[in-house]
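Sample pair:
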Amino acid sequence: MSTRARILLVEDDRALVELLVYHLAREEYEIDSTADGEEALLRAREAAPDLVILDWMIEGVSGIEVCRRLRRTPETALVPIIMLTARGEEADRIRGLETGADDYVTKPFSPRELVARVGALLRRARPALAGEHLGYGDLEMDLVAHKVKRGGETVSLGPTEFRLLRHFLERPGRVFSRERLLDAVWGHDSDIELRTVDVHIRRLRKAINAGGRPDVIRTVRSAGYALDSDGAA
């Protein structure tokens, strides 16, 4: 499974899009771009990105409304969002941040600065991009040695459970539907049935919750699963 971050770029200035795609691709990010707000929401629902770069003034649905809807959707509620805008007034910046943006960049800006901000947000949201270890609470994963520990004790996982846990650890708190997990862990061309996801979630829970440890995998009714401290038994 690739650890390359997927970035959804929502911007209608073609020259700026080309410039940003060039600089982001140099950092080996995967970039999906669109100039339309409705299209951006559709793509985010189909496959949640790891980060969104969102222009305030875009075609169709405004950037502010796109940001608001992304925050209201479980699958994208925790996706980092950087807002781009020519609006430099303090009131506008505050409005963007209050709507749910994580960062705010006023045009014109340096592409290198934006790339640096992207990297900083991704390192906080997706630790796998910053090193060889993942962690959440007392859970630890060594990506090189292919080992998992909880509370310092080794946890034995099968290959599929390891990939599932890695996916959760890379994006803690985010809710994933069974379809999304199937695509991420088994692959887009998999013929595996959706209920197989539930089987492996149960196996993963049994392994990491052994000894009566608190459950850190939360079941979200009619939505899917998430890794967080409010897990359901």
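The CA atoms of residues 138 and 152 lie 8 Å apart.
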